[in-house]
Amino acid sequence: MNTLGIIQTKEITFAQPPDELILESGQKLGPVTVAYETYGTLNAAKSNAILVTHAFSGDAHAAGYHEGEEKPGWWDAMIGPGKAFDTDKYFVISSNVIGGCKGSTGPASINPATGKPYGLDFPIITIPDMVHAQKRLIDHLGIDTLLSVAGGSMGGMQALQWAVSYPEKIRSAIPIATTLKHSPQQIAFDEVGRQAIMADPDWHEGDYYGKAHPERGLAIARMVGHITYMSDQSMEEKFSRRRKENDYAFSFKSDFEVEGYLRYRGDTFVKRFDANSYLYITKAMDYFDVAGKKFIAADKKVDAQFLILSFQSDWLYPSYQSRDIANELRMRSIDVTYCEIKSTYGHDAFLLEVDAETHLIKHFLEKVSQQKKSPTV
User: Fold this and answer.
1) Of 119, 129, 199, 310, which sits with the fewest C-beta atoms within 10 Å of its C-beta?
2) Angstrom distance (rounded) from CA 79 to CA 3
3) 324 counts as catalytic
4) Where are the domains of the chain?
5) How many CB atoms neighbour CB 309 within 10 A?
6) Is 103 left (phi over 0), alpha (psi -120 to 50) or beta?
7) Of residues 86, 277, 347, 348, which has the active-site annotation?
8) Are 285 and 127 contacting, i.e. CB atoms less than 8 angstroms apart?
9) What is the distance between the alpha carbons of residues 67 and 325, in angstroms, rounded to a whole number?
């Protein structure tokens, strides 16, 4: 399918003191920079904009290629001419969350008060804080209402938070493989990752910038994460018990292909991600909770339509959590379509089940586009 070609990442900076961004914790953050990319053309009515929100380790580079790089953006299979998010029809926006490390303000950014990286002086941020920063970006682009907000995993949390924080600003939402709140098991996996980083002797209470970084701790955290992203069946199909050599090494080297894969994933991750961002973003995910009365108020008129997708083999964000979202919406008489997609890929399916997602999302967006938005009451 067609590619978007070379894409450039842009930035906006806002919340200059004394007008800092007020965070959910009550602390202030400013100035705030948000890195973003856009694909397609905004129409004259500014009615065809779609915000794509990224998962935990994602960034603003969702589609196309950066100059000199061979690997496209993380959702390139879904964004572009003729694809699920068809850039011949829609203006697609992707931004890096605050707290991240790929252009938006985060713990590795310079603290204007000290002239040094924030480290642990960076305030705790939440999913609502991320969405409030995205709202500033959408305002900057001159867009009053988004046709849709879509994302998988933590991106799905952001899509739900848009419906909670700014229901009048979206016509639809597509939360994929996500949840209303983290379960104890999901929090537990995040805590293991955080402890691995903080136990690394090079972590230095988050003050490691300009020194050796806590690479081993971060690599272990990523290894744990990758185990949760795959399913038992996908790991069996990809690795089984295949060995790297014919005979056992009778040592603690990598005998099995799955061991080598996890070590490779951990080692490559530390080259592109900041350990402190890992701590801050996983904590934001753990704090996320829009269940029950925290969700869209039952007496509030909401015109937004929802397409909720889950995957049969996803045990990190199991389908029952997506069904809970659909049930919450139906209790509020909100238009919702729920689909559970058959897949053996586990949680990674939201990045891999392109054909099934494309079919559902294309039809859904076409339906939303053809309907006029009624006034909010």
Assistant:
1) 199
2) 9
3) no
4) 10-181+288-370, 186-285
5) 27
6) left
7) 347
8) yes
9) 40
Among residues 86, 129, 286, 314, the one annotated as catalytic is 314
Catalytic residue among 153, 277, 319, 343: 153
C-alpha to C-alpha distances, 213 to 111, 127, 218, 286, nearest whole angstrom: 19, 26, 9, 25
Backbone angles phi, psi at 123, to 5 degrees: -70, 150
**Which pLDDT tens digit goes with each residue over 342-361?**
999 999 999 999 999 999 99
Inter-CA distances, 187 with 181, 218, 223, 275, 301, Å: 10, 17, 16, 18, 33
- Specify whether domain 10-181+288-370 bears CATH 2.40.40.20: no
Q: Is 153 in the active site?
A: yes
pTM for the full predicted model: 0.96
Kind of pairing between the strands at 336-341 and 28-29 = unpaired
Residue with the two structure tokens 């002086």: 121
Taking the C-alpha atoms of 41, 337, 160 and 331 in order, what is their torsion angle to the nearest 10 degrees? 140
pLDDT of residue 372: 67
Active site residue 132: no
Span 186-285 CATH architecture:
Orthogonal Bundle (1.10)
